[in-house]
Amino acid sequence: MTTKRILVIDDEDGVREIIQFSLEAGGGWEVLAAACGSEGLALAEAEQPDAIILDVMMPDMDGPTTFGHLQASDRTKHIPTILLTAKAKISEQKQFINLGVAGVITKPFGVRDLVNQIRNILNWQD
């Protein structure tokens, strides 16, 4: 079985590092990281990850806008994307789901829970 590759797009260095550590240590996955939407789009096109974790609130290009660009490209529209957000209201989460994302994970998250949430959303069995 090949190792899953996940692209994390988040403008906060600390959050990106925690997610990367969590996914590598807890999931055994390879993690690619981008600090902004445009960098994430380029990495997604070039690297073709198995999934993308995408922060909602970012300067310049926010998560929903970045997701729209991913969906508009034949090279990236097939990649399941999970939005990461501090917006915990169910109505806000439903708006994100309606965009066509695979799922939504709210901040703050538990390090152990993060891997399980991703596995459940993507139906990955390790």
From TrEMBL:
The modification 4-aspartylphosphate is found at residue 55. It comes from the Bacteria. Residues 5-122 form the Response regulatory domain. Keywords: Phosphoprotein. Pfam families: Response_reg. One of its GO terms (biological process) is phosphorelay signal transduction system. The keyword Phosphoprotein applies. CDD domains: REC_RR468-like. PANTHER family: CHEY SUBFAMILY (PTHR44591:SF22), STRESS RESPONSE REGULATOR PROTEIN 1 (PTHR44591). This is Response regulator. It comes from Aerosakkonema funiforme FACHB-1375.
